Structures are given as C-alpha cells and as structure tokens.
User: What shape does this take?
Amino acid sequence: MVVLTDLTSYTDAQQHFSKENLWALFDGDRERLNIGHECVDRHPADRIAIRIAHANGRDETITFGELRDWSNRVAHWLAGKGVGEGERVAIMLEPSLAFYAVLFGAMKAGCVAVPLFTLFGPDGLALRIDDCAPSLLVLAPEKADLQTSANVPVVIADDALLAELTAQSTAFTPDTAADAMAMYQYTSGTTRQLPEAVKHRHRAVVTVAIAALYATGVRPWDHFMCPSSPAWGHGLWHGTLAPLSLGVSIAAYAGPFDAERLMRAIQDYKITNLSAAATHYRMMKQAGTADEFDFNLQKLTFTGEAMDGGTADWVNSTFGQHARSIYGSTEVGVILAGYPGADDFDFKPGSLGKPVPSVEVAVLRADGEPTAPDEVGEIHLKRRDGWFPIKDLGHVDADGHYYHDGRADDVIISAGWTMSAQEIENTLMKHTDVDEVAVIAAPDEVRGQVAKAVVVSERDGSDAFTAELQAFAKQSLARHEYPRQVAYAAALPKTPAGKINRKALRDAEPS
Assistant: This one.
C-alpha cells in the first residue's frame, strides 16, 4: 500500500491521494478513533514530542512517553472529579506540559477540550464560558484572580494540581467513537457580536492531515515549529494536532511574542519546517537581527492574512526560499496550498497555490458563473449542496494558480471605481518608512467612499509625509487608486490571533 507520508511530489499527491490511503496513516477507523491516542500514545515513548520556547528564555522538552503518562493521569483525574463524557473542559494555559496534558487527557477521557486564548480578559472569558458551559476551567497560576462565573469550578495549574495528578495511574486506554465530540474551538474573527464555537469530532484529526501533508508539507523527519497560539486554528490544528498525529516532533512558543526569541529557538531547535502568521515574519524582519542566527529552514508557510511584498522579499533573501500560503478558514479548513517540499510544484510567489487533494475550488462571478483567467470574483468551495462562498475575492491564472484579492467586505467603491484595499496596502508597505498599514473605506460626500490608510511609522505624521505616501501609491497604482485620506497611529488594532482588525477601524469611522 502507498504510504502518503513517504511521498513528497505534487504529481504523487494527485495520483496517490485517496481517503483510504489517508485513513491508513491512523490506528483508528471510521467507527472508533481518539485524538489523544493518535497524537500521543502510538508514537515511540523516547521520541521528542514537543519543544517549547518560553519568552523568558527557558526551553522545555516533552517526550511522547511523558505526554502519554501525564495525559493518562489527567483522564483518570477528570473521572475522579465526576467530569464525564461529552462534558466540556476549558483550558486557559500557555503552551506547557500542563496545557498539553489537560488537552489530550480531556479528549482521551471522552470529554470535550476547549482551549482558550490566555490574553482574554474577564469579559472575553465570560462570553465563552457562558457559551460552552464547561464543567471545569483550568487556569494558569497568574490567572488565579481572573473573575469568572461562580457556577464553573476553577482549578489552578499549580503544584497542588501536580500532586493530585502524580497520584493517578499512568495506564489508560482511550476508547471513543470517531464521530464523538472532541473539541470546541472559538474563532478569532471580529464580525460576530458573540463568540461562536466551531465544534470538532475526533475524526477531524484525519481530515486535517490533508493540510499537514500538502499545506505545511509536514513529514515524519521534519523538525516542525508553529509559534501561533494553540487557542487558534493555525496553532492548534496545523501547529499541534496534525503534525503530532503523524509522529512529527513539534515546537511551540509560550508567552509574550519576541521576534529574537523566536529566531533563537528556530536556530537552537534546528527547525527545518516553519509555519507562522504573516505578522510573525513581518516582526522578524523589523527586528533587524536575523543575520545573527544560523537557520536550517527548508519549508516555510504562512497564514492569517496576506503577506506584503517587502516582507515576502525579505523572507526569500533571509531564508533562501519563499514562504508559501496556507489558505482556508476555521469553518472550512485548508483548501488551497503551495505544496512545500514538492520539487515538481511550479510555485508562483504571491499566489495561494492550488487546491489540496479531495476539494474543488472555483472563483465565481456574482451570477454564479466561473470567471475567466485573471478575472476577479469571489472564491467558493464546492460542497454537497452547492458552492459555498469563502467571503474572499480572488482570481485564477491560466495555469490554475489562485490569488487573493482581499476580503469581499474590503472592496472600496469610489466614484464608480472599484479598488482593492489589499492592493493599496501592499504598495504602501513598500515605502521604507511604513512599518504597518491598513486601508479601509471612509465615507465621502462626493465620491461615496474613499480609500483611507492608517499608517504605523517611526516617522512623524505630517502633511508632507501624507503627500509623499499618496505620490508613492500613484507611481505604482492607477491614478485614482491611492489613499485620499491618511491617518497615523502608534499601533493597529489586532484580533486575538494577531490579524489586523480592519473591522475595528471601519467601526471607528463616522457614518
């Protein structure tokens, strides 16, 4: 039988991928499967499972054997507390042995794990707690005074918990239905007034392996790192569950982000495969110290938002290769990829790549018809009941490579002209004095809307700087396609996942 993890080429991906070959990578089947077993128990006990780069400089190493034993203890401990199958266990911890032990222990026990972002304040936490109604909330010691619902028992991950866990048995055999609920994951989007949990069943670990194979290009021999928080889809599914399920040693980042700390970890852990947010790469570039480190990177991917041209060029010159896009969403998973590690894939810088095996993607006009090559439309995914809109604009070239043309709600229509906020942003980011920029539609009595750029720069904002930026944009874009308004900010608002929060900027505009 063909073993998909042995294959690296794009041609092989198209010829040999099948659902049967995908399921053959796992111990479980369509009836019985457990994420904890697939990610932890079945791998050699002495192999490194996770390295953690803590922001304070500390390095933490966890083997598969240690993770197996501690997660088994957690499974017994939860049963002893009366937390039964299907009940939610909320986890608000930074990457650590405690976090991974509770994450996998809860799922082994048949509970539903709910990882929560550690920077949530009382209101953000309360919204999610009220929504998922957990039977238990596990908090880090530094979060002990965080106020939450009195109806939810809180456990602090401290020495007392360690003592309780040590007394538990290290022997446990997980047994769950493949379609049993395993995890609630809250999106980091900003369009919803209330948070919405995306609910995952145990069999989802099989589906996400498609992204591991073709979007991050993970293979068992890789040293893989994803610095994104495991509270979000990228850090959780692509950075943790998918690679661990394939027996890959991973690395994570814990604590306040520091670009130099990340680069040191990439060097010291001899990382060969890095998957990060576009913001991570931009911050490494801005640190200006990459030439002080020795890197061994062979595969680079990014997600979260588009990467500006200046950062993309820096990545290529610094690491000797392009970062390839991972495109999808929490709701639909990964649908387009750059096939890192596939030498026969004709990667085009700036593209989203091509569809991963088993999915059908198209760019459609407003009337539902496919666009012509290079014609901008809305990206759709084929589902059983028809085409599902992803809410992004894009186009396909004559060779079948997909490109992103901004969010559907980021289109600016000014005096009848249609402009792409992303295109204006990409141009302004090429200016040497622009550190970050977000472009939104601002109301205008004459034109209806105009493009407004909110700029982060060490240079003082002034009329002269504004005129310079406008002239700079006009040199590369159409004469009408430039920011008629420019504002300056010390920082741009971000979502918890680190994406620029353009909705917050739009909401701040007068109606």
Residues 189-193 have pLDDT under 50 and may be disordered. The radius of gyration is 23 Å.
